[in-house]
Specification:
The protein is mainly β and 152 residues long. The protein has one helix and twelve strands. The chain has a seven-stranded antiparallel β-sheet with strand order 1-2-3-9-4-7-11, with no helix packed on it. Strand 5 and strand 6 form a beta hairpin.
Amino acid sequence: MPFTHLPFVSLDWTAGAHPLETKKLVEGQPVVLLEFAPGFEDPNWCERGHIIYVLDGVLDLVLDDRTERIAAGDGCRLDPTTRHRAKNPGNVPVRLFVVSDCNSVLVTLAKATRTQSMKTPDLMRLRMRPFVRAERVAPTSSGEPLAAHDLY
């Protein structure tokens, strides 16, 4: 299917697995809007791959060897098998957009790089490492892959 509408505005927030977590799921899609209330700290390790974009607040991602802080407007990519846990270190809710089927997303990104014009201003570039913070760069015609949010 070449187009799938993701109707987040019309979806209700539902309870997550943790009492301080709510989410909006689009059935059959690998995307979710999450909200973690202040004090949220996931007790469980996750090893799924994700592309994450923080909409509001601050997210801490606890990795095996360090903690990465991602603020509103920033994003990251986690490879599958990279152990991580989410935490809200702030006193306001953190909201994030998450894509969890990273293997198919990365294939889509590679295809988009070959077909999409590189004239879009302020493209995001992702470097391929187990944990990657997205950084804003000037557009180039070098064939760098597009970030997931450039496709939506």
